[in-house]
Each structure stands twice: as structure tokens, then as C-alpha cells.
Design a protein that fits this description.
This is TetR family transcriptional regulator. The protein is mainly α. Helices cover 70% and strands 0% of the residues. The chain has one domain: Tetracycline Repressor, domain 2.
Length: 204
Amino acid sequence: MTEPEKPKRVHKSAEQRREEILTVATRIFAERGYQVADMQAVADAAGVGKGTVYRYFPTKEALFTEALRFNLETLKASIEHAREQPEDPLEQLREGMRAYLLYFEKNPELIELFIQERAEFRTECQNSLYFSYMLAGREDWVAMFERIAERHPVRDIDAQEWMEVCGDMMHGAVVLSHTPLPRRPLSERFDRIFDIYLHGILKH
């Protein structure tokens, strides 16, 4: 009787392996919660030994933090890539907002990680990773709003305030899209959201 052929081991770089573990860990934390999720479950889902997971991430807290950071870096890169394409700063804003919403639509587990980070690790003296990333990118976004004001007829509103309202709308749209409220996907609603953000609801 012929023995079944053993699956061939595929060599992966350390970076590929690390990203695979972080992708799996994101799903495990989102599904089970930080307290219940464990390193063995992540190792099993990633198809590696538990020792391999510990070699990359010495503690569960480190794994959780790096999974969150990995997602935020990917989100940031998606937005930056989308904003690189158009020359008009108004189109840069449109595509940046679209990329932000679509990322959360494709990666809904990231919202769960935000909630868990706030519940498990936040102190009064420490900002969450999400807000750290948001604060780090503020100057860049304000500069884009100022370029829009230079090229387009806009109301006399401070660029900082304009940006904050934009952030409020986007964050609210993402959070509410993950509630039981009946809503169409963000990808289908984006053009309307952007139109109302730019023009309001009154006829001019």
C-alpha cells in the first residue's frame, strides 16, 4: 500500500510569516475577545507551532498590540495610495475618504480590536493606537484642506474644523455600519455621504 504523500513545506520569509500570524490573530481576537483568545488558537489557525508565535511575539499583549498596529499601518497605506492618484486636492479628499470607509468594510474585525483595546489597555494617561495614528496625520490632512481652499470656492471655515467634521462623519459612518441598524454597505453609500459632506442638505 502506498503511503500518502506528505505536503511539501513552503518556505516563507520572516516578514510573510509575521504578517500571516498578525492577520490570523486579528480574526481570533475579534471573534473571541482578548481575554478568551490564546496563543495556541492563533498558532493552530496560522498553521504553525505555538513556539513560532512566541518567537515573533513574546506575550499575548504584544501580539494584540502588533495586530492592531499592522491593521492601522495597512489602513494608512491604503489612504495614502488613494490620495496619490488625483492631482486635484478635492479629489484627493474624496478618494482618501473612500479608501478609509472601504477598508473598514473589508476588515470589520478592526472595529472589534478598537473596542477591546479601549476596554483592556486604555488609561487616562495613554491614548489608544488609533488616536495616536490619527493625531500623527493631522497636519497632513489640514494641509490638504488648505490646498482645497486655495483652488475651490469654499465657505469661510477654518481648515482644522473642516477636517474635524470630516473625521466625525467618517468615524460615525464606520461605527454605525457595524450595528444591527439596517443600512446599505458603505461602498454603496459613499457617493451620497461625500455629496452631503460637501454640499449639505439644503438647496442652494
